[in-house]
């Protein structure tokens, strides 16, 4: 197995800086939108077209107070990222992207565990929250296997706001998933 595909590959983590934006936007787009996203299993290409994010959206996450975008590196290559935002007693986990070529190798599990550790150690929070498009059953099942639970709390999808993509169906909503952090 190629070194990059090994689940035990050596990863390094660091907070993103504005200098990383140029590499982060295509990574995030490749994990969710367009034909390149179909190489992995996290694609949203069948339910959303258009952009997943843009440089301004990534910059906003990097520069917001109580927020960070954790980057993940394999050797010198950016291979994944995730957003962490401190929200009182909980942290929010979002903008999670793993390069489609590396999906399925166990990296996602390791990155989620590191994000949970960072939130628990740096912010002392007791819960991790995330929102997932409610029709993404396979993705929700992945998070449930990581200890997240569905809450049934739905937030309407922002139809008409192209910053979130162009919906291909009319039944989209975000569901809140929660995990207690030990």
Structural descriptors:
alpha+beta; 28% helix; 33% strand; 182 residues
Summarize the structure.
It is built from five helices and nine strands. It has 182 residues and is of the alpha+beta class. The radius of gyration is 16 Å and the shape is globular.
Outline the structure in words.
It is globular, with a radius of gyration of 16 Å. A hairpin with a 2-residue loop joins strand 3 (67-74) and strand 4. The protein contains five helices and nine strands; from the N terminus they run βααβαβββαβαβββ. The chain has helices spanning 21-32, 34-37, 55-63, 107-123, 137-145, and strands at 11-15, 48-49, 67-74, 77-87, 90-98, 127-133, 149-156, 166-167, 173-180. It is of the alpha+beta class and 182 residues long. Residues 1-5 have low confidence and may be disordered. It has a seven-stranded mixed beta sheet. It has a two-stranded antiparallel sheet with strand order 2-8.
